[in-house]
Amino acid sequence: MSYIKEKFKAKADELSAEVKDLLKNHGTKKIDEVTVAQAYQGMRGITGLVTETSLLDANEGIRFRGYSIPELREHLPKAPGGQEPLPEGLFYLMLIGELPTEADVQNLSSVLSRRSHVPNHVFDAIEALPVSTHPMTMFTVAVMALQTESVFAKAYADGMSKKDYWSYMYEDSLNLIARLPRIAAYIYRRKYKNGDHIQPDGMLDWAANFAHMLGYRNEDFKELMRLYMVIHADHEGGNVSAHTTHLVGSALSDAYLSFAAGLNGLAGPLHGLANQEVIKWILDMREELGGGMPDKAQIEAYVKKTLAEGKVVPGYGHAVLRKTDPRFTAQMEFAKKHLPDEELVRIVWLVYETVPDILKDLGKVKNPWPNVDAHSGALLVHYGLVEYEFYTVLFGVSRALGVLASLCWDRALGLSLERPKSVTSEWMKLFVEGK
Ligand code: FCX
């Protein structure tokens, strides 16, 4: 067994004993109550899930195992000559609960590189789809095709014991994370670069190799990919992609089945697809205004038009956050350092100065501030990745790190099949009448 796997097992055994104790001594203690509105309105604000990898504070934003995004950028190991954190390090942190050393990260990079082989039938499955297919659909199909490789599913069919679930889930999770960049890059090159594919470079770290296979040689773009893969990885357990992966996994579906389900949620415009919607919205605005840099009044008019058409302003608002998303701020800092004069970036910043006041004036939007998706497209376009339908695939590759680390914990802690109670509106009417 690898030392990282042994370490995970030791941590999991320790927490399992503590959870057993919590359940025995405090199992009936109430942590929340549920209102009628919450049952109808997306269960917003109900504390009813356990996710070890990260915790979201409405005002401060996400913390991964206690570390905020600025702290991760400071403390996680970097690539030689680089300044952004390596996503392998974040995966280690989410899995083990401790900051990794440089050696831990190098080890994980080479483990992922060794496990990155993708069988041909996965590429055949992608090729079977029309080129016009949305990249997220291709991505989910490819992950489903890869399910043939699940060691968890094989071991379950062979009759594995409950105590071994974690071990096979761990192997599947690492194998899947290792293979995702190759699959995503294949989709990109097939759809946008005439199928001119680029072989992996085993000497590069996970994110840099992804950038390389996409076809980008620029060192700053590799840095952007490292940062991108870190900030999109996890956002505690209740968001659609994390919750779906966890829910499907609770039926003992393997990592491939569970993650593919999560990806389908990420592909929705109110969740991960918002990153493509934002840049589309900005490009449409620029075109409608005749090109060039719009001024604040023009942006204001365009935002109002969007709202009048009954649409949301993409990249703004959040179900939990109530301040500017630190993932937005991290990208803004990256842009200030590397591409402060990029026109699209300056438009994103001017939109940031304009939108919150308009959303506040609506009186119903709980969070008028930008989320992670408000900035990413402008950075990607700058480096030449202009095919915005592909952006949610990037989000998906990153999101695998968090949701698969969580799945390992789910099986290690023996979490149960998820099956909350539902009621009908008829039941609700009788309930409020006290019947
Ligand atoms: N533009 C216009 N209206 C908005 C809005 C926005 N950006 N954000 C919220 N509202 C509206 C809602 O549509 C709702 O209107 P309704 O009462 O007429 O149905 C009202 O304000 C209250 O919604 P609120 O409680 O503030 O927000 P929710 O928790 O229901 O929804 C999301 C949160 C993120 C879905 C919402 O803010 C939204 O649609 N934003 C735009 C899409 C987006 O950027 N999604 C990405 C989110 C995230 F970062 C990610 O998952 O990737």
UniProtKB/TrEMBL annotation:
Keywords from the UniProt entry: Transferase
Family matches, as InterPro entries: Citrate_synth-like_lrg_a-sub (IPR016142), Citrate_synth-like_sm_a-sub (IPR016143), Citrate_synthase (IPR002020), Citrate_synthase_AS (IPR019810), Citrate_synthase_euk (IPR010109), Citrate_synthase_sf (IPR036969)
Keyword Transferase tagged: yes
Family affiliation: Belongs to the citrate synthase family.
UniProt KW tRNA processing keyword: no
Protein name: citrate synthase (unknown stereospecificity)
Biological process terms in GO annotation: carbohydrate metabolic process; citrate metabolic process; tricarboxylic acid cycle
E.C. no: 2.3.3.16
Uppermost EC category: transferase
Gene: gltA
Pathway it works in: Carbohydrate metabolism; tricarboxylic acid cycle; isocitrate from oxaloacetate: step 1/2
Molecular function as annotated in GO: citrate synthase activity
NCBIfam families, sorted: cit_synth_euk (TIGR01793), PRK09569.1 (NF007128)
SUPFAM superfamilies, alphabetized: Citrate synthase
